[in-house]
Specification:
With about 650 residues, the protein is an alpha/beta fold. It contains 14 helices and 27 strands. Among the domains are: about 130 residues, Immunoglobulin-like; about 100 residues, Golgi alpha-mannosidase II (Immunoglobulin-like).
Length: about 650
């Protein structure tokens, strides 16, 4: 269909000629306004208008509660001869009715009844029907939305609390997951109290298998019904916004499960996925891979991303498994993949889709952030599309995560042999806009909790954990912490159980939670600790050479003429160091703002009595220096009370 032929009037269709043109071009970003099931009125009768894309079907009927699931009663018609879109109005259908599509493929072959790819709501699994639902809501988060543009700047602090809704807290009665409306005030109050700036939710998009944590998505336009209605989920987002907390949603455009009622072989053909398993089957997750070269599929995914930012007021999307999209040979052996048209391993269609996705989302929604979970060295992931980048705002720093957890997992006596694990990340820290994740992936499948990874007795485990979280906070980049890590959850995460909240009655766990709360406050209130996260001038080594003692010291600074420096000193051994000299760029009194070894955090209480006065003793390239007590397995944050730069 050309732009000229699309200009003809489509009688009886909710699609305009322009809609059809953009859909076929692969650039439509608002398909949810006409596709799927929408309450409507025709000839004075209330009912529902249905629209479905099934270009290779020979016939389509909508079946549901409104017609006794009888496929003869409500056949749909292809309004435009080659659009592939089947439409129809069902009088008497109403909100809450369950429905599916009965599709006959080539030769009249009946395929399994299908959900609505654009369905706004689904029945509770294991049910698989879509549900007619209207998304109207009188939102009460206007203040947040109006100010989002300024809060969304990359110079602002970003402290993300990653949450799986079904296991954060559960009902004290029967242990079932809390509904959206019940968890909303609890989560908002807790996250605000702990000082996080954002919540990132593991996928809430409808998924048939609860144990996938949402990463096996089928309902790309439906929040899971396990916890309530679409408006209930809107209430959760609204409640977080009114508490001053941003909401990031995990979104999975990389693959989808092959359940018979889902997207796979939707109209009897490989419509959403590639036909060839070397392109269309994911060996890691036994799932289907979207065909990014098909224009209508790109429109489907672009509209899904926009849907969550538009209708649910999400403040960003974290795009899952980007690496698996970028490489045709991802997790494949020789002969198991098909090279691109130039003979390379890059998935050119996926690259173009990601660029299109990010340009569209940033262009349409001010103040949001697009985040890539990308684990390779693909260049310019967070650089603008017009400069040749993928256009994301942030990229997970998987290298830092693996290095730092490997380092902290070793007994301190061996850490001097792994000193480069601490320092290597700075070599590439400003090549992308990095987010430092301590995510759910690191506390499952036998990996143990963050607390469990730490060596030593319980006291040393908690000291190491506080040091790890402090080092993450001080390092350039935005921060993410999976739920439970903030108070030292001791067992590995289990999606079938809530976190072990009674642990907060223990001094070590309570002290860790208090440390995270105070650390987050310092990171938010101190411009030097967040404004220069992506600017090389925001970081300066003071000393990274003390390998034998496993000590590093560095400065975090504000970019510009007034650096307002923060001195960070880390001792990665359980041996306290007294009279340890460190060069400083500013003369005067250096106030000890945070000390992870303070007794209120569960530490031994060793420190510097609130701060130290600098001395005119040149050291480490500075005219001034301070003599510090470095606590065991501790991190110090010090700031000058007055600035008098005396750098050589």
């Amino acid at each position: 269909m050309t732009k000229e032929t699309a200009g003809e009037v489509l009688h009886g269709s909710v699609f305009s000629a322009q809609d059809l043109y953009l859909f076929r071009e692969g650039t439509h970003r608002r398909l949810y306004r006409m596709m799927g099931a929408h309450l409507a009125e025709e000839d004075g009768k209330a009912g529902v208008h249905f629209a479905l894309w099934a270009p290779n079907a020979e016939g389509v009927s909508v079946i549901g509660d409104f017609n006794g699931w009888n496929c003869r009663k409500n056949p749909l018609q292809m309004i435009w001869r080659d659009s592939g879109i089947w439409e129809g109005f069902v009088p008497g259908a109403r909100q809450g009715d369950r429905y599916k599509y009965r599709i006959w493929g080539k030769g009249g072959v009946q395929i399994p009844d299908k959900l609505d790819p654009f369905g706004f709501y689904s029945e509770i699994p294991p049910g698989t029907a879509s549900v007619v639902w209207d998304l109207e809501k009188n939102w009460q988060d206007g203040g947040w939305m109006e100010g989002r543009a300024s809060r969304g700047r990359l110079t602002e602090p970003m402290l993300i609390y990653e949450v799986h809704l079904g296991s954060w807290r559960r009902s004290p009665g029967d242990g079932s997951p809390l509904p959206y409306r019940e968890i909303a005030p609890l989560l908002a109050e807790y996250v605000r109290e702990m000082g996080f700036s954002h919540v990132e939710l593991l996928p809430v998009m409808e998924h048939p298998f609860y144990g996938s944590w949402g990463y096996q998505t089928l309902g790309y336009y439906a929040p899971t019904s396990r916890y309530g209605t679409p408006q209930d989920f809107m209430y959760l987002v609204e409640t977080l916004h009114r508490a001053g907390i941003g909401v990031i949603l995990d979104w999975v455009p990389s693959h989808f499960p092959t359940d018979p009622h889902g997207l796979a072989q939707f109209d009897g053909t490989h419509l959403y996925e590639h036909l060839d398993p070397r392109q269309g089957f994911h060996p890691d997750w036994k799932s289907a891979i979207f065909n990014y070269g098909r224009n209508e599929v790109r429109s489907f995914l672009l509209s899904s991303a926009a849907f969550w930012l538009d209708r649910y007021h999400a403040d960003g999307l974290r795009v899952d498994a980007v690496a698996s999209m970028l490489y045709l040979d991802y997790s494949r052996k020789a002969g198991e993949w098909i090279p691109n048209r130039f003979g390379g391993r890059e998935n050119l269609e996926a690259v173009e889709f990601l660029r299109q996705l990010n340009a569209a989302c940033y262009g349409d929604f001010e103040g949001i952030q697009m985040v890539a979970e990308e684990s390779t060295a693909w260049p310019m992931v967070t650089r603008p599309v017009h400069l040749g980048g993928l256009g994301f705002g942030l990229k997970w720093n998987m290298g830092w995560m693996h290095d730092i957890l490997d380092y902290f997992g070793k007994d301190p006596i061996y850490r001097k042999h792994l000193h480069d694990r601490l320092t290597f990340s700075i070599w590439y820290a400003f090549s992308e806009n990095f987010l430092l994740p301590l995510s759910h992936d690191e506390v499952v499948y036998g990996k143990g909790s963050l607390y469990g990874k730490m060596p030593g007795d319980p006291w040393k485990k908690f000291a190491n954990l506080r040091l790890l979280l402090g080092f993450q906070g001080a390092h350039p980049g935005k921060k993410l912490l999976f739920m439970g890590g903030e108070f030292g959850q001791e067992r590995e995460w289990d999606h079938e159980r809530e976190l072990d909240w009674p642990l907060l009655e223990n001094p070590g766990n309570a002290g860790t939670a208090r440390w995270v709360k105070d650390l987050n406050r310092l990171l938010k209130e101190t411009p030097a600790l967040h404004e220069g996260d992506f600017d090389p001038s925001g970081f300066e080594w003071v000393d990274f050479r003390d390998v034998d003692n496993s000590i590093v010291a560095f400065l975090r600074k504000r970019p510009g003429e007034r650096p307002d420096p923060v001195l960070v000193v880390c001792n990665f051994t359980p041996v306290p160091r007294h009279d340890y000299r460190i060069g400083v760029p500013v003369s005067g009194f250096w106030s000890e703002r945070l000390n992870s070894d303070a007794k209120e955090y569960g530490g031994s209480g060793q420190g510097n009595m609130g701060g130290v006065e600098s001395e005119p003793v040149p050291f480490q390239g500075f005219a001034q220096s301070v003599s510090l007590t470095l606590p065991p397995l501790g991190i110090l944050f010090l700031v000058p009370e007055e600035e008098h730069p005396e750098r050589n």
